[in-house]
Amino acid sequence: MARNKPYGGTDLAAFLTHRIVELRPRKSQVEIASEAGFANPNMLSMLKAGTTKLALDRVADLARALETDPARLFQMALLQSGHETTRAVIEEIFGTLVTRNEVGWLAELRDASDNVDPSLTTRSRAALRAIFGK
Amino acid sequence: MTHAPASPPKSIFPITGNERAWIKFIRAISDRSDPGITLRRIQQLRILLLNKLA
């Protein structure tokens, strides 16, 4: 990891880069920065490049601007800040932070399995890879 | 006066250990893109579970 890009290659930097491209037909990076309340429109470029990290108190506004789930962005911001211990404590006390999409997947998993709480087997992993094209 | 909690804290969304494994694997193979639910994916998931539980 380059010294001037301490957060380069983090999940958050990769996610942000991907999400901004996805939103490009509807809103520009400058508009996203403005919606997120960043005074400096270059902040998103800095976050994407990994020259700076996302402050936790900016997560909610940025998630809204990115039209993404704040729980997922919060997890990535915690990890980016080196707060793995904090993340683990939150998970232990409050449970796993899941996004709305993940709640949907879990609901489908429970419904389709008649709530038998199926384990994740090697065969399940292979099938999931097929479902997600991996 | 003590203020010890009378009951364990409620989970944000209580999930089992198995479900946690499913979610973590989906996160890993989707590059943390938080994939949405589509009809095709649900159909494939149901087929997977039917085969698994048969």
Structural summary, described in words:
The complex is a heterodimer of chains A (134) and B (54). Chain A contains eight helices and no strands. Chain A is globular. Helix content of chain A is 60%, strand content 0%. The longest helix of chain A is centred in the N-terminal third of the chain and has 13 residues. The longest helix of chain B is centred in the C-terminal third of the chain and has 15 residues. Chain B has two helices and no strands. At the A-B interface, α1, α7 and α8 of A face α1 and α2 of B.
Give the SSE layout.
The complex is a heterodimer of chains A (134) and B (54).
Chain A: H1 11-23, H2 29-35, H3 43-49, H4 59-66, H5 70-80, H6 84-94, H7 100-112, H8 122-131
Helix pairs in contact in A: 1-3, 2-4, 4-5
Chain B: H1 17-29, H2 39-53
Segments of chain A where pLDDT lies below 50 for 5+ residues?
Answer: none
Please write the string of helix (H) and strand (E) elements of chain B.
HH
Tell me, briefly, the overall form of chain B.
Answer: globular
Total beta strands of chain B: 0
Q: How many helices of chain B in DSSP terms?
A: 2
Which structural class is indicated by helix and strand composition of chain A?
mainly alpha
Q: Got a strand count of chain A?
A: 0
Order of secondary-structure elements of chain A: HHHHHHHH
Give the distance, in angstroms, between the N- and C-terminal Cα atoms of chain B. Answer: 56 Å
Looking at this protein, list some descriptive labels.
heterodimer, A: 134 residues, mainly alpha, B: 54 residues, 0% strand
